[in-house]
Amino acid sequence: MTLRRWRLQTRLIVLAGLVLILVGAGIGTASWLSVRGSLMTDLDAQLTSMTSHARSGDGPGAGPGASGNTGTSGGGDDSAAAVDSALRYLFQPGVGDGALVVVDSGDGGEGLIAEAGLTRPRALSAEAIDALLEVEPGGASSAHESVRVPGFGAYRVVAFDDGGTTTVYGVPQGNVDSALERTAWTTAFVVLFGVIATAALMAVIIHRQLRDLRDVARTAREVTDLELSDGKPELALRVPAELAVPGTEVGDVGASVNRMLDHVGSALEERYRGTEQMRRFVADASHELRTPIATIRGWADLTRPYRDALPAEVTTSLGKIDSGAMRMSSLVDDLLLLARLEAGRQPTREDTVDVSSLLVELVEDVHVVNPDHAISLDVPPEALEVRGAADQVRRVVSIVLTNACVHTPPGTNVHVEALATRKPVSGQLPSDVVAIRISDDGQGIPPEIRDRVFDRFVRGDPSRTRQDGAKGGSSGLGLSIAAGLVELMRGGISMSSTDAGTTFELRLPAA
């Protein structure tokens, strides 16, 4: 999950926390380095003072005797004198606890360390002496080094080379290291506490500052939840005026959202007015067409007793007039029904309809008209009953079943089944429904119209008529009427189609 996909509030808090951590780490590191520099400077000054006194021979005190613990007894040559002179410093009063001196004149190194509570310095181990003699002689303060002396811990040391004799002076660094460790832990705790406290405070501040933006987003979500597809659109929601004042980021967004909603509302109003005008025109035109169409059919019917005496061409023409008038009358009736459904003026009833027997009748009727299709029916032995008007249920099933036959080639298998189940209908929670599935193994509905099969004037055949002219023309209104009638009965209809076939499912409330 990338940072861009996080909520703005989360991103701001995380980024602010990271900045605080970096700043806190920088401050803590700088503080620790400053303390370390100060302590090491004091320690180097102590070491410099020690070496200055030791090498100048200042201060009272007697050197070690012949029987002392310096390791120099019995020596009277220059080398022994040099070692004795260097180690003599540790016998002076006031020498710091832990101070040490190591001398190597070429005959083997010797070393002593002053310890509190002892009247005389203690000899260093050979391992400690070897570790100290590895320090390169320098003498200047810049040559001070930190080394770890076996058995004694960390030391700050400096080495001198006096004509072949190497002398190493050292003071303990343990107190400095302990102080630095305590400083590090204290600084880390303070920085961590400060980061957490500041981050929590910033989270509260950011949350409060983004409250206005959340209000704008809530308005946008409420708009998306509105049902704007049917009926007169009501788009009265707006971002509150105090949040839509340009000049700030939130104000600019709020003002833009309100302007967008104004444009959308105007467009919806215009669309609604155009749709209403079209509905009224279709209803009025259909109503006005019924009279002349009925007149044409009436005059055509008056000629029936005399058609045997008329020439064949005239009889054929009258038959075409009659069939055309019937198709036109059916189309006008469909348009009127669709207009009433869309306007919510189509009445319905809450009868109990026996779906099982209705399907048996419809399958038999459709099979007679379409003998070149294999139509099968599968219904449970118990009766399936739904709430609705019997003629409307029959009309819906007939439309879908007829489409399955007339829009597929001969030899197609059409299967009809009905079963009781629990599914949501008309946006309600799942309830007891009767599902009627009508499926075929034909070529399927073209992909480009699958999302529009329930719209008006949508045809599966791109031409204006079906491929089999004997079955009559296609108005493209059947599935629109079916969807409207199912919705009127508080049911649902859906479709799934592939290249291997199509399935329609009708869901009607169980009685």
Question: How would you summarize what this structure contains?
Answer:
With 511 residues, this protein is α+β, with helices and mostly antiparallel strands. The chain has 10 helices and 13 strands. The protein starts with 7 loop residues before the first helix and ends with a strand.
Textual characterization of the structure:
This protein is of the alpha+beta class and 511 residues long. It folds into 3 domains: 11-57 and 79-178; 221-346; 351-509, Heat Shock Protein 90. The protein contains 10 helices and 13 strands. The strands form 3 sheets. A 6-stranded antiparallel β-sheet has the order 3-2-1-6-5-4, sandwiched between helices. A hairpin with a 2-residue loop joins strand 5 (153-162) and strand 6. Helix 8 (355-369) packs parallel to helix 9 (390-406). The radius of gyration is 51 Å and the shape is rod-shaped. The model is unreliable at 58-76 and 463-473 (pLDDT under 50).
Placed side by side, the strands forming the largest sheet appear as: 3-2-1-6-5-4
Distance between the termini: 50 Å
Number of strands: 13
Q: How many individual helices?
A: 10
Organism: Brevibacterium linens
GO molecular function, one term: phosphorelay sensor kinase activity
Catalytic activity: ATP + protein L-histidine = ADP + protein N-phospho-L-histidine
Protein name: histidine kinase
Summarize this structure as a short list of keywords or feature phrases:
511 residues; alpha+beta; six-stranded antiparallel sheet; 10 helices
